[in-house]
Amino acid sequence: MPGLIEPYDDLTGAVQQIILSSSDTDYLDQLIPLLKNAKTQSHVQPLVQALSQISTEREAEIERICNNNHQEFISSVSQLQSAREGTVTLTSEILELSRSIEATTEKLAEQKKALVDSRSVRQNIDDTTQALKDCLEVLRLANQVHDLLGKKSHYAALRALDELQNVHLREVTRYRIADMIERSVPATQHLIAEAVKTDLNTWLYRIRETSQFLGEVAFYHTEMRRTRQKERWTAEQDSFLAASKLNSAIELVADEQEEFDVLNNEEVQVDFSPLFECLHIHEALGQMDAFRAEYATTRRRQKELLVPSSLILDDDDLAGLSSLLEGIAGFAIVEQATMHKTPENFRTRAAVDELWDSMVQSAITLISAALPSVTNDEKLLKVKGVIALFIQTMDSWSYSVSALDSLLLTIFSKYSDLLKTRYSDDFAEIIAGDDYMPMPITNAEEFAKVLSVSWYTPPPELQDPVYPCILPFSQMYPMICIDIRNFLNQIYLFSDDHFSHTAVIDSTLRTALDDLLVTKVANSLSSRLSSQYPGQIVQILTNLEHFETACNELESLLVSARSSASAACPIILSATTAFRQTSKQAEIRIFELVNSKIDDLIETAEYDWLSTYIPDIASPYMSELTRYLGNIMSSVLIGLPEMLKEQMYVASLAHVSSALLSLPLDPGVTTISSQAVTAYALDVAHLVNFVTSLDDDAALADLEELRQTTALMQLAAQGKGDEFFDSSVSGIKFGTVDKLKGVELLEKVKIGPGSRPALASLNTLGNGQGNGGRESPTVFGGGAGKFTTGLGERFGKFAGRDRS
């Protein structure tokens, strides 16, 4: 918008400028401010005058222009009038021609209309014919869908229905039949879905019925793999191959040439076509999520039908357990195959594992509930074998078997307890039925059999024995050795095929074997040491020594047989110590029995210490005693090792010596006649002669005190007891005699007729007289009253020195 005009002193110029405006808008835009300005400044009159002046000037100019061009204007008007007349004439002619053309056109339009009407009818007929053809084709395709359904070609029927809906119906959408068929499409799709579900349910039923047989085939295939693996171990003797387990990478590579499809073989064929068809149809219908959920629900229901409410393990062939595990295996194999053959989101790993875990837990619950009814270790081993076959089969299909491994651990605990109970009874029966006599061998076959089952190395004299011969142990030893070997084999038999807890086997075996040997063998033999028959105790001692040797061998055997995972330290059986301690008890018991018999015989010695009769032969009790010692040496103790036998014999003779020494030293014996000394010395000589005949210096040395004491008593009876106090003679003749006991005997022995009293000699020595008038040093103070006290004080010191 142009700006306002500036105030002019000359209103005429302003008006002139307004008149020269190029448009009406500019004219008004400039005029209005001018009028407002004129009114505001009271210039209205000058403005009117200016406008009047401009108007006068314009009129004068128009008049001048008109005067100059008047003739030309008149001429132009005349020409224009002539042209108008010609135009009127021409218009009349055109109107006439138009009326003529209009009449002709009406006739042509009538003919054209007739032609168009004819063509329209024909087109309608053609359109109707084509519509009928299209509708017939649609009806044919609709009927074809139902025909395909009748032939169970569900996917082809769905494809035909989809083609009908998306192609052919679009061509006849303007007809009612298209709407009718369009409304029937969902119902037809539902019919197809129901038909394919019916086929799928039939397939699922057949799969459920086939699951057990499928599992049986899978078990058989696993068993064949085991056999081939064992054959490869035997043929190749490869320790690295032998260390590989079933389903390991090494075993799978070695067995890859033996191809076997569990789902498609001569025995069983599982066709997944119904499932694939159902998947395709539901995917095409957009119902995949609903179908996935429905299929999962169906499989869960089938899983529940697969697991029985209870399980019996008492049948001989374990048919119930085999059927249960075969059914679970077949079900899980189908699930695994379904997961790999179908789209990823149809059967997920989580869903399959959930079903597997549920079935495994149900099976474990059933088996655990039925285990208490199994009281036979062989039956339990069969149960373990079926479960191990199941574990190895499912491990090859990448299922988790850790829960089943824990179940095997529970079964092994019960198995070891059953074995322990059975062998406890066997051990008790063997020990109770043993004759506790050295085992006789009649031929080489028996000898070889005993050597093969026992831990026994025969001495050189039995390397090539002459039959019949005698083995040092009784029959219990080889029989218990057989049971020990069987126990070991049956414990390790549990680890065959599959058992991952090898360290548990090693620990359980050591503990159970220790307990059996300690409680059922060592303790049982220890309880029989109360027997009063030395021969039985000697045989028990011999058996114990061999059992101790067997324990040492068992420790080495267990170390070599245990798994490398648990091989950390040497194995020490507490049974070894138990047998050693029981052996000590047996030795002590033998000592007790022999010494008791010796005491009984010596108690029959009826010495008349005041007797005046001198016998010609040894006392009957001494003859019986030497006969008894000879018997135990040649019969009772003959089965013991030479060193132990010698120790026992020496100990027995030492006890005899001590018992004989105690007779004259009895407090009730106050006086001993020389005749009694002679009788006593005769018995001691008989004993010494008997021991001398044995050619045993150690045994003879144990009688030295008895011999010297008897000699001292004889000297005392002869009145020569003072030699005991002569240090030059006493150290040689009476070095082993206890000083106090020697003095006590000197007091008791009565000097025989014609002999010098011993105490008189001692008193004479004390007064410096005797020995040819030669003076001797005073040993005791004068007077018989002080003799006993002074002698006791002096030789008490000697006795203490000798003991130290």
Automatic annotation (TrEMBL):
Signal peptide: none annotated. InterPro entries: EXOC6/Sec15, EXOC6/Sec15_C, EXOC6/Sec15_C_dom1, EXOC6_Sec15_N. One of its GO terms (cellular component) is membrane. Residues 764-786 are annotated as: Disordered. Residues 51-219 form the Exocyst complex component EXOC6/Sec15 N-terminal domain. Residues 404-748 form the Exocyst complex subunit EXOC6/Sec15 C-terminal domain. Keywords: Exocytosis, Transport. The keyword Ribosomal protein does not apply. GO terms for biological process: Golgi to plasma membrane transport; intracellular protein transport; vesicle tethering involved in exocytosis. Belongs to the SEC15 family. Component of the exocyst complex involved in the docking of exocytic vesicles with fusion sites on the plasma membrane. This is Exocyst complex component SEC15. It comes from Cryoendolithus antarcticus.
